Amino acid sequence: MTENGKISSYENSIDTVSYQLFRFMLIFNGIVVLFNTMVTAHAIHGFIIEGNVFELITKFHLRMPYWKIPLIVILLYISLLSLLSIECHNHIELIVKLWLEIMACFGICFFSGFSYTGMVLLILADVMRNRIDWKKKLFYIMGLACYDLVLNSSLPASYMNVLSIKTIWSYYRYDVETMLTGAINIMFLLNVFAFIMYMVFLTLEQMSEKERISMLYEELSEVNSRLEKANKQLEAYTEESVRAAETRERNRFAQEIHDTLGHALTGIVTGIEACIMLMDIAPDATKEQLKAIEEVARQGITDVRQSVKALRPDALERMELKDALLKIIDETQRSTGISIKFECDASLVNFSTDEEEAIYRIVQEGVTNAIRHGKATEIFINITRVNDLLNIRIKDNGIGCSKIHKGFGLHHMEERLALLNGKLEYEGSDGFTINASVPIRWGSGEEEQSKKEAEYD
Amino acid sequence: MKIILNKIKTQRRYRLLLSCLLILIAFFIATDFQPIGRKKTKKLVIGAFTGSYWDLQNGYAYKILDEAIEEYKKENPEVEVEYVSGITRDDYQEWLAEQMAQGKMPDVFFVPSDDFSNFAQIGAMMNLNVFIKKDKDFHLENFYKKTLQSGSYKNVQYALPYECAPTLMMVNKTLLREKEVKLSGKEWTWGDFYNACEKVGRQLEADTDQYGVINYGWQDAFAANNVKLFNSKGTECDFTSANIYEAILFLERLSKLPQGRVTSAMDFYKGRVAFEPMLFSEYRAYISSEFSAQNYADFDWSYTTMPAGTSGKNISRLDTLNVAMYSETRNPKEAWEFMKVLTASEKIQSKIFDYSEGISPLINVTEDPQIAAHVKESYGVTLDRDVISYAMENAVTDVKFNSYHDAETEVSSAVNSILDAKTNIQMEQIIWNRRINSYLKKIK
User: Fold this and answer.
1) Can you give the residue range of the structural domain that contains B103?
2) Do A48 and B101 touch (CB under 8 A)?
3) Which residue has the higher pLDDT, A292 or B347?
4) Which residues of A touch B (CB under 8 A)?
5) Is the same domain home to B182 and B290?
6) Residue where a domain stops, chosen among B374, B392, B410
7) How far is B410 from B437, CA to CA, in rounded Å?
8) Residues in Cβ contact with A433 at an 8 Å cutoff, skipping those fewer than 6 apart
9) Using CA atoms, how far apart are residues B33 and B18, in angstroms rounded to an integer?
10) How does DSSP classify residue B399?
């Protein structure tokens, strides 16, 4: 904070000086122009009163009533002031502004007989304030310098037949005239001096700004390196926490295995040892014992199943396959607003976990694909059982596709199905349709079917 | 109002608009812009002076101008024509300048020959070439060529001649007849002139009341000997030429005749002088006043061309009063029409012979036998068609520039001092050439 404060106060002090100098030049030039034109008008008025106007007419053409001259000059100077206060945002704006400024400046010079041309320095000072690249800046400086030279040379005055201040001011007594001309000259020099001061302070300001920028840059790189360090720390921390979680999980596994399998296996081992000893002596008792062991083993399996279920995080694993499918369909419908029709006339119980997983994933992936790639609004899911094959059909009304690029999703489905000796078919002519078939390995299917058949009988 | 001020303070676009507006306002003020929709009745202001251009009071101050306005109104009744009366010939120059300084410059104004180059240089007169080219009814050929030259500057016609007067040599015929001198017609030379003067002078040695010539100045001698003294801008003077040497030599010879140069102007009218160069206007003024007073001189006099120098022709110096249009006039078309009425209308131009002393720059008017007869009858003035037409053909207009009069004075003193010094003329020429040129540099 203290560092920033120092920088800004330093910058402010320099800023103020160059800006104040520019403002001083604006006011100062205004005074000079006003003074110049007022004296001129007064002198012409004097000539008229004294009846010597013809002396003036021999030198130049007074195109307008003399009182108009100060009026025009003041108007032009105000317009120049307002132009100078405009900030430019691009190059074209700058060019337009410069042209207008040059016009106004020329008008002022024209109506004051090219006797005072300090306004060009004002324009130049204004150009220097603009942030344009140095090549363009150099171009403008050269242009304005030429303009100043032309104005200061006697060329325009002699070719355009403008009023000549020298002739007009000869109305005054010689010493007064000398004083007035001297005053204008001194003011011109003062203006030049102010301009030089302005340039010096502007340069200083720009240098200090460069310094400030480099300081800021240093600060930035320092912060950056700190940030990098923090990032690395964070990465290490994440790794550590992952490892901790792993350890915690392993401990849970160990606990679980110890509690279930360990317990059952210990029981089984102890029982079998007893059986070995009893086998020859009391075969009936052994039988009893083996039955007890079977009980323990079955209990163990149930325990293992339960603990595996408890360890798995998925919805699928916490509920029946059908409920899981309904849940995911319901969630998708609610979250995307797409209507999904789900028909299932086959029993989905008794599948092994890998089969359940495969079916669940196929449905999930198919729905996701239909939404993401097909932009579908309606999806039909149909699960039927034909003999020992479970057919899953997912169809949508989306855009489909003529050429199918097998993405990760489809590939993954195929791989899953291949492991179960299943098959995957798809086509994208009318929406997109996926047909997956999974062979059913357990016998209950047949039993069920025969049961059904019996019922029908 | 406050909102606008605030917007100007804060918004760049408004500030740009304001500056453009101010520049435009300044431009309109400067050019005296008036919206096209607001057409007022057109008004022409004429700059004119009272009395005659030829420094003579004739009582017909604005007679021709009034008639021209009447004539103009017949064709253009919708245009108002005005002039400020009462400005004297002496005040006219200053009055014009004042009008200019106050932005009230007349649309059409008379330009005395002394002021022409000045107005041309500062650009106060409208370039008439365009009007002349466009206007099928206007023919430059109707004017004497030399009168048009007086209104042109750098090949641009800025003004049209309204009235002019050539310098002519007045001849006291009675005196010449007495001395049995015969002149050899229009194309006579310095030799004839000198012989005549010598005869008149020599035979009257005892009676110093009679002279050969008066008022024959260096300007006449230089013009007769084809001298180009100044360049058109008046920045340089060639005083060393052989033509000037010859002219000065001739003036010296004339001055050696008894009382050759030093007399008063009235001597000619008293019949004591054989020759005097005079503007036609002076001649005419004198004759008509004598005529109206029924007071005939007891000698017979007429005019002829100026004598030719050894290297020149019978050249008269021509003084012309021009009419010009102000360059910033709002009604240039109307002004041009009025200028045409003033200068090119034969009806108006013929009035010059009634109400003024010069001659018309229109050939048809000045050489019209009817007008000549009328002038002879009414005013007793002879319009010698032969002499006038010859003089107008061979006239020159002095190169006039700013401070021409100062330069002329300088040359006058140069010529006079050479004539008085009686030293080597060519040597003096070189010395004076240097002095005059450095003087010209100083006054520029």
Assistant:
1) 43-164+319-392
2) yes
3) B347
4) 44, 47-48, 51-54, 56-66, 68, 71-72, 75-76, 78-80, 82-83, 85-87, 97, 100, 103-104, 107, 111, 161
5) yes
6) B392
7) 10
8) A393, A394, A395, A396, A426, A427
9) 19
10) -
- Residue type for A444, please? S
Among the residues of B32-109, which ranges form H helices?
63-75, 89-101
A174-223 tens-digit pLDDT: 999 999 999 999 999 999 999 999 999 888 888 888 898 999 999 999 99
- The answer to whether residues B302 and B412 belong to one domain is yes
Tokens describing residue B44:
């022409």
Instruction: Look at residue B258 in the predicted model and tell me its pLDDT.
Output: 65
Q: Is B101 within 8 Å of chain A by CB?
A: yes
- Note whether A75 contacts B25, CB cutoff 8 Å: yes
Q: For chain A, how many structural domains are there in total?
A: 2
Q: Is the pLDDT of residue B297 over 70?
A: no
DSSP assigned state of B140:
G
Residues near A58 by beta carbon (within 8 Å), at least 6 away in sequence:
B118, B122, B402, B403
**CA separation for the pair A316, A312 (Å, rounded):** 9
Same domain for B160 and B254? no
- What confidence score (pLDDT) does residue B38 get? 55
Do B170 and B157 reside in the same domain of the chain?
Answer: no
With CB atoms and an 8 Å threshold, state whether B18 touches A161. no
* Complex ipTM > 0.90: no
Q: Which residues contact A125 (CB under 8 A, 6 or more apart)?
A: A22, A25, A195, A198, A199
B-chain CB neighbours of A98 within 8 Å are none
3-state secondary structure of B324: strand
Q: Domain range holding A82?
A: 2-222
How many C-beta atoms surround the C-beta of residue A154 within 10 A?
A: 9
B60-104: per-residue pLDDT in tens? 778 889 999 999 999 888 888 989 888 888 889 889 888 888 888
Count of A–B CB contacts within 8 Å? 106
